[in-house]
């Protein structure tokens, strides 16, 4: 789809012009200059000459002035590949010769003032958040041209959007690895990260599969905090930002935001991960999508049928559907509440809402009762044995009667 320009009026603010390449890409109001789009799943290897030129850009090693003959590198970073590109810069995968580790270099470009503001906005939240699921910033510096860049942990793995694409395409290996239980466990990981940010007073505001990264051992990372905001600021300011397919209705209307907006986005990701269908309106234009979002009611998540996986488990529908309610007051008021309900559902404790959940609840309770005491197993065994003996006796009697 070609870029579309849309003029929207936010509450208590001037008209804002938005530019969007696709409905699953992040958008922000044009006066929000402190934003850079990063597609971490885009990998492009760099030829030797370009790598040398880029490596020179980030300056020399701090050990250059030493007289040790073993110090032979004239640059600190050996840039090896492009990890992502955006409106305000690029992200490179590199080898850091000073720290002897692989790192990600996020370089900010554009107007100098915009580049500095984009860099500041990126690090002011990540730098203060302490969680294993948030890639740390190692350093903030400037290139030889004076543009800011940050040195971050380089992630090995793939974005959740790639996993969802594999599941949608019917990849049997992906379906075997990412069972429904495994998918819910990923959402619980995500909720723990978002919960940590909320406890620090920070809203992410752009939670989507492209910004959720899975490591080599299925450890989950939440990346790209470029449009994040202080909770108290977001609650008192109208800002149009986020990704249309995953943004909350209040985001689409440029209303003040709270933790319930992030919870909606987590729910939208969970909905798609389980059902392999989007919970957003199926509109083809940005204007139509934003207009439909506030009132659109998606299909219940466990009613979507997929030829490979069938229907998603009904025990998870209540938490997921509650998280994507249209009105913020009707959603979970904290990520901890949603996490608790999903954990309870995984453990077999969930609300009975339909025949499927009634049968599953009964079976789960039976299994837990059997696990409680050995004599319970022996009792069931005795009942089954008695039933079979009675059945055989009845058969014998019938046989004699008609024999």
Q: Write down the CATH class of the largest domain.
A: Mainly Alpha
Largest sheet: 6 strands, antiparallel
Q: What CATH architecture of the largest domain would you give?
A: Orthogonal Bundle
Enter the CATH topology name of the largest domain: Transferase(Phosphotransferase), domain 1
Indicate the low-confidence ranges by residue numbers. 1-21, 30-46, 66-72
- Shape from CA axes? elongated
Mean pLDDT: 82
Terminal-residue CA separation: 79 Å
CATH superfamily of the largest domain: Transferase(Phosphotransferase) domain 1
Strand content: 15-25%
Order of helices and strands: EEEEHEEEHEEEHHHEEEEHEHHHEEHHHH
Biggest sheet strand order reads 4-5-6-7-9-8
Rg calc: 27 Å
Q: How many DSSP E strands?
A: 17
The class by helix and strand makeup works out as alpha+beta
The percent range for helix content is: 25-40%
Number of domains: 3
Structure overview:
This protein is an alpha+beta fold and 403 residues long. It folds into three domains: 41-153, Phosphorylase Kinase, domain 1, CATH 3.30.200.20; 159-354, Transferase(Phosphotransferase), domain 1 (Orthogonal Bundle), CATH 1.10.510; 359-402. The protein is built from 13 helices and 17 strands. It has helices at residues 48-57, 112-126, 160-168, 172-177, 180-199, 231-234, 249-252, 259-275, 286-292, 317-323, 335-346, 355-372, 374-402, and strands spanning 4-9, 15-20, 27-28, 44-45, 77-86, 89-96, 101-108, 137-142, 148-153, 157-159, 202-203, 212-215, 220-222, 229-230, 241-242, 305-306, 310-311. A six-stranded antiparallel sheet has the order 4-5-6-7-9-8. The longest helix is centred in the C-terminal third of the chain and has 29 residues, at 374-402. The model is unreliable at 1-21, 30-46 and 66-72 (pLDDT under 50).
